[in-house]
Amino acid sequence: MEILSQMWSLLGLLTVLQNVLPSQLLSLLHSLYESLQDLLSPYSYFEIPEFNGYCGVDLNDLYRHVHLYLNAANHSPAAACRRLTLSRSPSSNRISFAVAPNHTVHDTFNGHGVTWTHHVDTVQDSLEEKRSFTLRLPKRHCHALLSPYLAHVTARAEEFERVSRERRLFTNNTGSGSFESGWVSVPFRHPSTFDTLALEPELKKQIKHDLTAFANGKEFYNRVGRAWKRGYLLHGPPGSGKSSLIAAMANFLCYDVYDLELTKVSDNSELRSLLIQTTNRSIIVIEDIDCSVDLTADRTTKKMQGKTSFKGKKEKMVSFSRSGCEESGRVTLSGLLNFTDGLWSCCGEERIVVFTTNHRDSVDPALVRCGRMDVHVSLGTCGVHAFRELARNYLGVDSHVLFEAVEACIRSGGSLTPAHVGEILLRNRADADVATREVLSAMQGRMLAVAAADQTDNEEAGTGVRSPESVLLMGSPENWDSLSGKKRKEHQHHHHGSNNWDKKVKFFVRLRSLTRSDSGR
Asked: Which residues form the signal peptide (predicted)?
């Protein structure tokens, strides 16, 4: 009781002194008290306000990073706080934690305890609030911890922001003005991932390793003096999974996707403008590069002009002026090359350029050389591992009695594209037996069609009509033999084709007997 009475007496004395003493003296005493407290305290304190300066206009980027770092849903310091505020944006399913006002969060860094306190004060005679974070560090290790810890906070905040933000799918806008954005966007919510992609495991591993090395290669690209970008060429038949692979790459890296439609671009100047408006951490896609615009016309025009160089000077000037007008009104090969690998390609960072085509040989070699398209991915028909992945995704089964027969068809040349197999499995997803049997039937039909085509080609070669392979070999030194030797080789080739046909027929007989026995079980 005596201690309490003495405390009340001391508080009463302080109240009297506060009313009697002048404000300047009270301020001096308060500063002396804080200095004494800082001298005796084992901690150092750093305040991080929401806005820079006294005007409250410029947002403090460090405050935003601390807010993201502490509010990460999977961050243990925020989860250990006694009171949290939960929130979720309308465009996202992710729930984020927020530290409640005037509460403290404890963290550890390099074996030292760190404390964050979120202060929210109401401004007098105003509805506005003054927010700030106070960082408390051990005084003895303050200088050694401050810079590395803030760098750690910034890195974690940027990573959380990259993963949690809503990704967008952009397409170029037709007829946009000079002050308007050339892109329009929608939320990108494609479900394709590398786990669901119908690719061989080794190819998946190589692509993921290359993407990870690119995303973490900022210091490397700066050190070697290269623009931080990567080029991918995806080529294969329709339905081989090129678009699904692009979506899986975007979901793996958490990048935005810019789908560039070249037929909507009027000239090279607009193409450069679209490139400038793209953001960092994005994938720029040009699908069917061999069909978008006639890029080979540039080289053809120059060859034609070279052949007609014997004409008069007046006609030559008219020809060049016409070609110049045509190039100024469309996207040229030169403009696309500068877009992918020229000076304008380094106006952003951490960007991937992807070209897709069904026929790789139709693309101009200058577009796909190393430095522009660094990685060439050949996507073909469905392999053994890809088929099992599709069966697992669509049917929910890891094994089936007909899987061996399907794999035998794949190894014998009866493979289908992943889109074809996926459509069959989707249509019969309620019954795994029916789905697998229909896939097997489609593969058998594919093998019969291929075998019949091979037999027709062999018969045409025997009647004197040369096959594409024989035309290709006509200029090689191996074919500079006598006519009798050439006929002997053609006869052997025809006989070998007949043997292949007989082998495939026998294979189908064994395969059908196998499927009948499996269905009878």
From this structure: 1-22
Name the residue with higher pLDDT: 174 or 311: 174
The answer to whether residues 72 and 80 touch, using CB atoms and an 8 Å cutoff, is no
**Structure tokens that stand for 311 in this block:** 């004409």
Residues 41-51: what's their mean pLDDT? Answer: 87
* Domain-ending residue, one of 323, 348, 378: 378
Helix (H) or strand (E) holding 273: helix 268-276
In a domain, 7, yes or no: no
Structure tokens at 26: 């009270």
Whether the Cβ atoms of residue 352 and residue 231 lie closer than 8 Å to each other: yes
More confident: 511 or 252:
252
* 339 plus 351 within the same structural domain: yes
In three-state secondary structure terms, 455 is: helix
Q: What is the pLDDT of residue 515?
A: 55
Query: In 3D, which of 158, 216, 192 has the Cα closest to residue 422?
Result: 192
User: Distance from first CA to last CA of the chain, Å, rounded?
Assistant: 93
Tell me which of 211 and 337 has the higher pLDDT.
211
The residue with tokens 């978008």 is: 292
Nearest to 227 by CA among 293, 159, 300, 280: 280
Kindly state the tokens that stand for 173. 């806008």
| Bridge partner residues of 132 (DSSP) | 49, 119
Q: What is the pTM of this model?
A: 0.69
DSSP string, 47-112: EEESEETTTT-EE-HHHHHHHHHHH-TT-HHHHTSSSEEEE--TT----EEEEPTTEEEEEEETTE
118, 101 in Cβ contact below 8 A? Answer: yes
Residue 48 CA to residue 70 CA, distance in Å, equals 14
Residue 278's Cβ-side half-sphere holds a number of Cα atoms within 13 Å equal to: 33
User: Tell me, what's the pLDDT at 93?
Assistant: 61
Q: Decide: 137 and 46 in contact? Cβ < 8 Å.
A: yes
How far apart are the C-alpha atoms of 249 and 198, rounded to whole Å? Answer: 14
**341/213 same-domain check:** yes
Q: What is the pLDDT of residue 314?
A: 43
| Each residue's pLDDT tens digit, 412-469 | 888 899 999 999 999 999 999 999 999 999 998 888 887 777 666 665 554 443 333 3
Radius of gyration for the alpha carbons in the chain, expressed in angstroms and rounded: 35
How far apart CA 172 and CA 269 sit, in angstroms, is 14
* 211 and 354, same domain (yes or no): yes
CATH number of 269's domain: 3.40.50.300
SS (H, E, C) 408-428: HHHHCCCCCCHHHHHHHHHHC
Domain around 290: 168-295+331-378
Nearest Cα neighbor of 417 from 450, 453, 443 is 443
The kind and range of the H/E element at 28 are: helix 23-40
Which of 70-79, 134-143, 209-218, 371-380 is predicted least confidently? Answer: 70-79
Q: Is residue 321 part of a domain?
A: no
Q: How many domains does the chain have?
A: 3
Same domain, 265 and 355: yes
- If asked whether residues 143 and 291 sit together in one domain, one would say no
Contact between residue 437 and residue 444 where contact means Cβ atoms under 8 Å apart: no
In this structure, the chain runs to a length of 521
